[in-house]
Amino acid sequence: MEESPLHPFELHNFIPITLGGVDISINKAVVMMWVVVAVVSTLLIIAASSRGRVPGKLQILAEMLVGFIRSMILDTMGKDGLKFFPLIATLFLFILFCNWLGLIPGTYTVTSQIIVTGVFAGAVYLLSVVLGFVLHGIKFLGILVPPGTPAWMLPLMIPIEIISQLARPVSLAVRLFANMTAGHTILAVLFGMVISLPFYVSWLPFAATLFVNTLEVCLIAPIQAYIFTILTCVYLGDAVTLHGHSEHAH
Question: What is the pTM of this model?
Fold first, then answer.
């Protein structure tokens, strides 16, 4: 029987653990998250400890990342959004390195699990809602009323806006999960063709595998991390400024 291309996404417990009826077992996804945290933390600590008048390559890279994340926040939330820099930076770097490290053969792509992206998306959206009510109180419900909407259209527009708001965490979670899963499934199929086809034709799927893998590393992985993070900035920015309609441009 041929192995399913979705086989790499299956999870098997290394150490079964149950706490209060909740399964918190250690599996490959959990280990990969630990590895990602360790790698990102180590790189940033080394970059910060090696500061000098002549910056090294790692320090330059860290400064570029800080500048990039800072510009994302300023473009979507303004200077008031810089208070969220630790959250935004952590989210971006964690997703980026989960995507990148998951491309190494034998590892696991954490962001290919809908439960992981769903928890991230749900937490981000819940934070934006809580923040909106903390800052604006009941006036935050004004986010459900598009600017300039005539009073007679409110019974129609408000339900539409409620659905739009509820769709935010769903679309945020599914977008990242679907893109990472699709890319890795294509790689698995192509690699399977390399193994199964005769040598004189196997170079075609092998070349395609190299192309798709390069595409994943250089474009798909960083772009998906960027999209998730920029939409997080948009949601938090909507809560801070009480403008709920910048999402429609996306």
Answer: 0.84
CA angle centred on 125, ends 124 and 128, rounded to 5° = 90
What's the rounded mean pLDDT across residues 168-186? 88
Per domain, the residue ranges of the chain are 7-249
Rounded Cα distance between 34 and 151, Å, is: 52
Cα–Cα distance, 37 to 101 (Å, whole number)? 11
Count of residues making up the chain: 250
How far from 99 is each of 6, 7, 67, 107, CA to CA, in Å? 17, 18, 21, 11
Q: What is the pLDDT of residues 44-101, one digit of tens each?
A: 888 888 766 667 788 888 889 999 999 999 988 888 889 999 999 999 999 999 999 9
CA angle (130 as vertex; 125, 132 as ends), nearest 5: 95
Angle between the 114-136 and 221-241 helix axes, to the nearest 10 degrees? 20
Pick from 223, 193, 198: which is nearest to 208 by CA? 193
Q: Of 160, 161, 166, 206, which Cα lies nearest the Cα of 187?
A: 206
Query: pLDDT digit string (tens) for 198-250?
Result: 777 777 888 888 888 888 888 999 999 999 999 999 999 888 887 644 443 34
**Average of per-residue pLDDT across 144-151:** 78
Secondary structure class of 140 (helix, strand, coil): helix
d(CA 90, CA 95): 8
